[in-house]
Each structure stands twice: as C-alpha cells, then as structure tokens.
Amino acid sequence: MTDYVSLQDVTKTYRMGEITIKAADGISFDVQKGEFVIVVGPSGAGKTTVLNILGGMDVATSGKVFVDGAEITKYRGKKLIQYRREEIGFVFQFYNLMQNLTALENVELAMQICKYPLDAKKVLEEVGLKERMNNFPAQLSGGEQQRVAIARALAKNPKLLLCDEPTGALDYVTGKAILKLLQDTCREKEMTVIVITHNSALAPMADRVIKIRNGKVAETVLNEKPMPVEEIEW
C-alpha cells in the first residue's frame, strides 16, 4: 500500500464575537491507500471538522491536506467541485436526501456526476432496501434513510469514502451489516474508507485508529490483524 491521505498541521478556527474557537488544532496524520480507518473521539473533539476539510466541504484555516499526491487545500471553484464529485463519497450523519425523489432516484442522481458508478439497484439491495427502493424518504424510517445515504455514497464508486457516524441511526443488527459492507467494500475495491464515530468499541475492525481529543490527535494505533465485524460487540 502507498500513502494516500496526508493531513499536515491542519487547523480550523471560528470566530464567535470576541471568542475564537479552534475546532482543529494542528492535526496531522497519514492514511495509506486501501486502509479502513476509524477516527474516534467524544462529541466536539473535531472529528466532523476534519472529515469536512478532507471532503472539500470546508476549508482549513492553515495547514495542508494531500489526497493521492494532490494538495486539495489549494483547490478552489471548479477544481474543488470536480474533486468532490469524482473522488469522494460522503455519508452524512443527517442523510441529506432529496425529499421529492425515491430512494432509487436519490442514488441515481448521485451517480450522474461521477465517472465509474456502480449499479444503483444492486447497491440498494446490498444495504437491505430491495423492497423499499421506490419509496420516498418520508416513507422510510430514519435507519432506512441512513442506508439510502450509504448506498448513494457507495454507488459513486469513490476512491475515498468518508462516513460521519454511519451507524448512528441504525439498530445493532443492521449497523453490523452496514459496517461489514463498508469493510468488505474497502477490501474488495481497495477503497480508502474513513469512518468517524464516538464508539471506541469499533476500533478493532480498523487497519488504523486515530484518536482525536480537543482538536488534536491524541493517539494513532495500527492494527496488524483487524477483526471481522462479526466478532465485535458493542
């Protein structure tokens, strides 16, 4: 495997009146191509901020971010849009589905902006929505909407898949099935997958675990033998 993602002293500050808040405070870490990575930490630690910067949806205040050798922190305008469309799959914590489109249409819409999409129906079947793909989001439970969001990201067949609490709205059994799908996809397609979660019990399934606390990397752990999801309990 070769280096694929590199964050170098990344900071992100916000101004709230007279107060300056550091959501990311000099974060640095590297991820190799094809790794399954879990980023853990409590709420407010800076996990989502890092994911948004890496996905090109937020801009770092300082520092550099490299993906596949390209410095994405230099991207602006059309170049940034192209990066998000063609390189990144993003599973949002709050779904972000188009309410006037069916589950299938939501997935198909995302596929129209990428180069090498997967079959939308097949991916929806893989996330357990074979019988629900023609339903609108309002007709789906929160867990089912989350699975549509996951299918939408996977169908883009991205090089880098970013997941913000992907099992947060799912029951235990479904959550395990989705994590297994993400882990299997990472292995089979050599897709680099980064999952952020507050659930440290998921750490053994990752190749690399990055622990973030107070906007800083507190620890990085490499697992020589990641556990299959089926063997993990939480």
TrEMBL record:
<dbReference type="InterPro" id="IPR003593">
    <property type="entry name" value="AAA+_ATPase"/>
</dbReference>
<comment type="similarity">
    <text>Belongs to the ABC transporter superfamily.</text>
</comment>
<dbReference type="Pfam" id="PF00005">
    <property type="entry name" value="ABC_tran"/>
</dbReference>
<keyword id="KW-0547">Nucleotide-binding</keyword>
<dbReference type="InterPro" id="IPR027417">
    <property type="entry name" value="P-loop_NTPase"/>
</dbReference>
<dbReference type="InterPro" id="IPR017871">
    <property type="entry name" value="ABC_transporter-like_CS"/>
</dbReference>
<keyword id="KW-0067">ATP-binding</keyword>
<protein>
    <submittedName>
        <fullName>ABC transporter ATP-binding protein</fullName>
    </submittedName>
</protein>
<feature type="domain" description="ABC transporter">
    <location>
        <begin position="5"/>
        <end position="234"/>
    </location>
</feature>
<keyword id="KW-0813">Transport</keyword>
<dbReference type="InterPro" id="IPR003439">
    <property type="entry name" value="ABC_transporter-like_ATP-bd"/>
</dbReference>
<dbReference type="InterPro" id="IPR017911">
    <property type="entry name" value="MacB-like_ATP-bd"/>
</dbReference>
<dbReference type="GO" id="GO:0005524">
    <property type="term" value="F:ATP binding"/>
</dbReference>
